[in-house]
Design a protein that fits this description.
Beta-Lactamase; alpha+beta; 747 residues; 5-stranded antiparallel β-sheet
Length: 747
Amino acid sequence: MRKRGSGKTTGQRREVVTPSGRKLRRSTKGKSVSKGLIRSDGRSKGSLSSKTSSSKSERLSQEIQSQANELARKNKELRQAHLKAEEESQKYRYLYETIPVASYTLDAQGTVLDLNEAGAMLLRSSRHHLVDRRFHVFIYESDRSLFRGFMRKVLKGAGHELCAVRLADDQTLSLVLVGVRRNNHERKRAVVQLAVMDVTGFIRVQGVLRDSNEALEATVNERTEQLTDALGRLNQEIEERRCAEDRLSLLNDSLEQRVNERTIALAEANERWEWVVRATHDGVWDWDLVRNKAYFSPRWKEMHGIQDGDLSESSEEWSSRIHPEDQQKVGDKLEAYLAGIVPEFWEEYRIQRKDGIYIWVLDRGVAVFDEEGRAIRMVGAETDITWRKESEEALRRSEQEFRTLADNVPALFSYIGLDFRYRFVNKRYEELFGRHDKTMVGMTVFDLLGSDGYAVVEPYLRKALEGESVAFEYELKVPGDGIRYLSVQYVPDRGKQGEVRGLFALLADVTALKLSEAALRGREAELRALNAKLVQVQEEERRRIARDLHDDVTQRLAALTLELHGMKRYAVEAGCDPSIVSKVKGLGESVERLTTDVQQLAHHLHPSILEHAGLEAAAREHADEFSARTGLLTEVLVRDLPKEVPLDQATCLYRVLQESLQNVRKHANASNVLVRLLGTNHGVGICVHDDGQGLESKTAGNRKGLGLTSMAERVWSLKGTFRVRTRPDDGTEIHAWVPLEDVKYKT
């Protein structure tokens, strides 16, 4: 079967149709038909080109896809490398801050750009005061030329350089400087990374080691000669010991059997001993007086805080742990017993555990004596009696404290029984009623207070004897002193079953307090009025100073600035020395900055925007300026603020805002600040909240600083309220509110 379109028919003529529809008639003898248009495989050129183009498109698409995959893979690797670089940067910063080697970053002029905590400690100053200072000022004057040459080498070279110098304030300290040049991408210039090590001790140790090595060498030579002589004697002794070992081997065989028999008997005795020790729960000790060695049971070690792996202590160590007040007593008792003066050793004393805690022990022991009457062994037991001693001491101390407290408390203290009779009264009763305390014991409340006083306290007495604690105040007519004001508290005394057995009465004479409170309220009103006047005078003085600064000082500084700029132009036109022109230009810029500072000072003393635009605009302007100056995110929220706030109230709240933000900048270590201006039914308030560390770490003992006191006094002078809420590491919130007589809100 022949292929279609091949035109292979020998000796015939055949019609062939081209792709354009044209008919060709050619001889096919020995040739393929339409050589230029038809291939031998039956495909036309147009079909072949389409196939080739499709194949190329597929290959191009595959290459593009492959390149896209490779690009995605490289992008992923790049992100991973970036994350790893950030992690390494954090690790480097942590290492930089925590290593004990002082490290500094200096610019080409030797100015400190950055340093770690070890660097600040080495130079005995804070990091804040060291930044932007020249490092050579801390180096001894005669060594500063070495330091400058060292800096030039570091900035020129690619490797690290070394330099040894001394400190300026302490010439005995020797330092080794290691410097490396690196590029600072932020400052776009080269900086020097400097590591400083204190080698004073190393130099001293080198001298000591050099002397020691010389002495050691002489000693080694001497000992070598001695060891050579000893080696000969040792060889002779080895031969003698070999003979002795042969004789001992014969003895060991006979002793081994005897040891086995004694071991079995000893194991049985030890078992009985262990059960006895466990049963008594005492610490048992066995003291070999001849060799001065002791055995201690596990319970004894537990009592004294000694671990199983610790070495047994000697009698001197045991004696040193006895309380200094008891050492003489225990030592005398032990010596008297071993000498046969007393029949037994028995003593209670305090002894210090290994962890430093003192315990009370009851120590008992018996001794074993030899034929000559000398003590060769002593066995005893200790009992921990700390709990009993503590209970006895607590009871004694409680009784003494109660008696001392009752007689010295600055109030009347007594105990009243169920029959309304006094069982105990302190010395204060004698001072108030003019009677001896012993004569009042046994009297009834009615007899002591009289009918009028008893009528007042009788209901409270009954409530207290029914089990309820009561407190009240009443007036008591005392013979000779007139009326006395007493603050009384009755507390029931209950037994083990909860039954009331009587009551404790505590009476405080508050007559002077009552009179002082009345006088204090008057003085407080006067002080608040005076404080309000002082605040008003202060604000007026601020306005006057601000006006003087703005109208006089600022204008003169502006005129001086213009004159300096004119001098600069004149100097340029006259062809003066460029250094003079530069100097005049610098003076002009300094005066311009001084003018800006004076304007800011005048604005801080009295912001004119507070009078012309109101509290809200002034608060927002100050918050924006604070955020730009400190970099802290500061947000201002306003809700229900009145249309018009009187200048005195607005000034008060504005000063609270200024002082609060100042405290945030100095102490809070915060990152966000929220300021809220809130209107209420009868006034307006401000709240400043930060997310910093709180005031507890800065104000020890909860004492208010001058700033908080100033804010509180301002608010109180306008009859407002001031409150501070703070927690460590949970931020601080300052609230201030002042009343308004006629509140009109914005519509």
